[in-house]
Specification:
It comes from Halorubrum lacusprofundi (strain ATCC 49239 / DSM 5036 / JCM 8891 / ACAM 34). By secondary structure, this protein is an alpha/beta fold. The protein folds into two domains: about 190 residues, 3-Layer(aba) Sandwich (Rossmann fold); about 210 residues, no CATH class. The protein contains 16 helices and 14 strands. The longest helix has 22 residues. It binds NADP nicotinamide-adenine-dinucleotide phosphate (NAP).
């Protein structure tokens, strides 16, 4: 089947959910039907028709948006969608529960795919089951195209590309600082979070995946020098400040290491990457780092106990389908700084990247990250040596995604750090 035989450039699958709706709204605001043949998909025709009525009511350009109906538990319906589409952009999660048949359908049909997963236990399963078949089918299966892990992964790619261009050497170490952020959380995200802990409690492979810093690397390459995520407060030599563990480090660091591996280790086999939360200097910085570490440790410990996890999911977390409103998603902000250190012929250098947006990181900003990832795949606006496989944003799409995000108002900058070359 050629691409010309496919009806839709992009199907937003899960468009009736919190994140999917924001992606559909974003794409219909940013693009016109002449630019993009877009469809929205899900399991409920009524909810989809209501969504289409909302989308067309808000837009001068879109009179209609086609609807595709299927079910994540009905593989035949997913095959039909995958066969008829260039890129399936999915927000149907938890991915551990619902995701595999869709990947299967996309690989079978040679259809590109992008998602929002942070469920690394599931990504590991998909790598092992589908990477080779996706390479053969030239299907790009690009996971983690939202707040996890686009800023960390593309931030690292930007730092490394600048280092190689400017100093003729890659950064040997990269630190990703989650500097600031405010935003909400949806029931779907917390359900996915719960699935990771559930898998860790019940599945030895998931436990191993969460323990090994290289667990998302290709088979045979799942070890290295990087010790993995920081678990305690630590004073940071690059910034002369205290840092705490980052809740997103287990996902983002592994994704970045997979990017390095898939690209053929352009940053070296000794490359190290750490994501942390900077908390400032002095006693206050140390105390804040301690509090963050203790809070994160307590939450992880609580989620690891089956009855506590069940009670939190049942009585405390919002239900799937609940989440930030449009106004809330358009508010909020996040900023990430990446510092990369390397050694050029004339001595050490430090590269600095800023990556951020004035929108809720997990919803307003994520809608743009995932939506633009899908557009990159649909239009072939990618800078990647890989035509297929189970990929990361940096290895499967690359810098064009950063350019597009800059065009829609993200802060994306890279340069030599002014005060750290020594
Ligand atoms: N990386 C990030 O930054 C980020 C940010 C936000 C979300 N996420 C992830 O994105 C996922 C979705 O989150 P969310 O808050 O949007 O969740 P949600 O509101 O619960 O939406 C889930 C979607 O899946 C659909 N769905 C559920 N079961 C289905 C089935 N059997 N067949 C077809 N569709 C089905 C739902 O359809 P109905 O509407 O018919 O129920 C809904 O459209 C989660 O895994 C979350 O962790 C990641």
């Amino acid at each position: 089947m050629t691409d010309a035989d496919r009806t839709h450039d992009i199907v937003v699958w899960g468009a009736t959910g919190v994140a999917g709706r924001f992606v559909a709204e974003y794409l219909t605001e940013r693009y016109a039907p002449d630019d993009l043949s877009l469809a929205v998909g899900g399991r409920s025709p009524e909810r989809l028709e209501q969504l289409v009525s909302d989308l067309t009511g808000r837009s001068d350009a879109w009179d209609d948006v086609p609807v595709v109906v299927g079910d994540a538990t009905d593989p035949e319906s997913l095959r039909a969608i995958a066969r008829d589409t260039r890129v399936v952009c999915t927000t149907v999660g938890p991915y551990t529960t619902y995701g595999t048949p869709l990947v299967d359908a996309c690989v079978e049909a040679g259809t590109d795919y992008c998602d929002l997963t942070g469920e690394i236990n599931w990504v590991r399963e998909i790598i092992d089951r589908y990477h080779e078949a996706a390479v053969d089918a030239e299907a790009r299966i690009v996971h983690s195209c939202g707040f996890d892990s686009v800023p960390a992964d593309l931030g690292t790619l930007l730092a490394q590309s600048f280092a190689v261009e400017t100093f003729d050497a890659p950064c040997q170490t990269v630190r990703i600082y989650l500097e600031g952020g405010s935003g909400g959380v949806s029931g779907g995200t917390l359900a996915s979070f719960g699935e990771v802990f559930e898998a860790a409690a019940t599945d030895p492979l998931a436990r191993q995946t969460l323990r090994n810093p290289y667990s998302l690397a290709p088979p045979g390459e799942r070890s290295g020098v990087d010790p993995g995520e920081q678990r305690r407060p630590r004073r940071d030599s690059l910034r002369s400040a205290w840092t705490a563990p980052s809740p997103m480090a287990p996902v983002n660091e592994r994704v970045v290491r997979r990017s390095n591996a898939l690209l053929g280790y352009p940053w070296g086999r000794e490359f190290r990457c750490t994501e942390v939360v900077p908390t400032g200097d002095g006693l206050t910085g140390a105390a804040t780092a301690g509090l963050v570490a203790v809070g994160l440790g307590a939450f992880t410990a609580a989620m690891s106990v089956g009855p506590v996890r069940s009670a939190l999911r049942r009585y405390v977390f919002p239900d799937p389908g609940e989440g930030p409103t449009r106004e809330e998603a358009e508010a909020g902000h996040f900023s990430i700084r990446v510092l990369g250190r390397g050694t050029a012929a004339d001595g050490p250098f430090t590269v600095e990247v800023e990556f951020g947006a004035d929108r809720d990181p997990g919803y307003g900003a994520t809608a743009r990250m995932l939506g633009e990832a899908a557009v990159c795949l649909a239009t072939g606006d990618v800078d990647s040596p890989l035509d297929g496989g189970v990929l990361t944003p940096a290895s499967g799409i690359g810098l064009p995604l950063a350019e597009r995000l800059r065009d829609v108002g993200f802060t994306v900058s890279v340069g030599e750090a002014s005060d750290t070359r020594r």
